[in-house]
Specification:
Layout (H helix, E strand, L loop, with lengths): L2 H11 L2 H17 L14 H10 L10 E4 L7 H7 L5 E4 L3 H13 L5 E4 L12 E4 L5 H8 L8 E6 L3 H9 L2 E9 L7 E10 L1
Parallel strand pairs: 1-2, 1-4, 2-3, 4-5
Antiparallel strand pairs: 5-7, 6-7
Helix pairs in contact: 1-3, 2-4, 3-4
Length: 202
Amino acid sequence: MNDVEARAWAACYFDSSVMGRLDRLVEIVTAENQRQNLIARSTVKAMWARHIVDSLQLLLLAPTGTWLDIGTGAGFPGLAVAAADPDRVMILAAPRRLRADHLRDAARRLGLTRVTVVTDKVEGLREKAAIISARAVGRVGALFASAGHCADDHTVWLLPKGRNTREEVAEARRKWHGVFHVEPSITNSESAIVVARNVRRR
């Protein structure tokens, strides 16, 4: 999927107000990337495909409820999801102060009043979430271990992964019970999304 195709895909699912916020998010991240290294420079011109739609596709797999995004960094997937679904309570965990400051400023400029940014690692959080996501943060089993205290039996984990997805799921199954599904990514044929429910330690 190229950038033109990605923006067209988003326009099929979201109205003009959402598209306006997403366009503004692209502008904000592009500008901030000049100040701090938020995303690889090679992906700036492919922002819609590599970051925006790669994040938005998670909404198609998500139930209602509070969403916790671990290691949000530049704003993906958490800030993109919040821009598309502004009524949802969104908690963004970003341990680096400069990145947390960027997320707070971006949320304010986008008018996202239900976004909370926590400058801490997920281990320091105590909130429970209906959805937990993490993009390019850690291996599946490690994420269950670090964020399991924020989940309950009904929490859905949405974890975008690369070409080693099935290997990571197999590794996690050795220590974790649960219902695991691998969903193909719509943006990259070599990527996938791990969808997990009822996760608990063996």
